Amino acid sequence: MSAIDYQLTQLDQLEAESSHIMREVAAEFERPVLLFSGGADSTLTAIRLAEAGWAVHALSIVHDGRPEREVAAARALA
Predict the structure, then answer these.
(1) Three-state DSSP class for 59?
(2) Maximal C-alpha separation, the chain
(3) pTM above 0.70, yes or no
(4) For the segment 15-61, what is each residue's pLDDT rounded down to a tens digit?
(5) Residue 59: its pLDDT value, please?
(6) By CB neighbour count within 10 A (0-12 exposed, 13-18 middle, 19+ buried), where does 38 fall?
(7) Are 57 and 34 in contact (CB under 8 A)?
(8) Which of 51, 54, 57, 67 is the most buried (most CB within 10 A)?
(9) 41-73 per-residue burial string, b: 16 or more CB within 10 A, e: under 16
């Protein structure tokens, strides 16, 4: 049998690598906490961890330099 030539796009490679890193880091802790801004990165991280079977504990901090739309998004997704 010949090996199957399987290639990922650069975006798929980055996603696979980041998912692996998140799972490895989360596995190091009993109850990992995600600092959650409500933006695209932290939302995707929360989704990926939940898909991997982790209970997601998100912490969001409201401060003066944070855009109100991020605060609203974090509240809506909580």
Answers:
(1) strand
(2) 61
(3) no
(4) 888 878 877 887 788 777 888 877 788 888 888 888 888 888 878 77
(5) 80
(6) buried
(7) yes
(8) 54
(9) ebbebbebbeeeebebebebeeeeeeeeebbeb
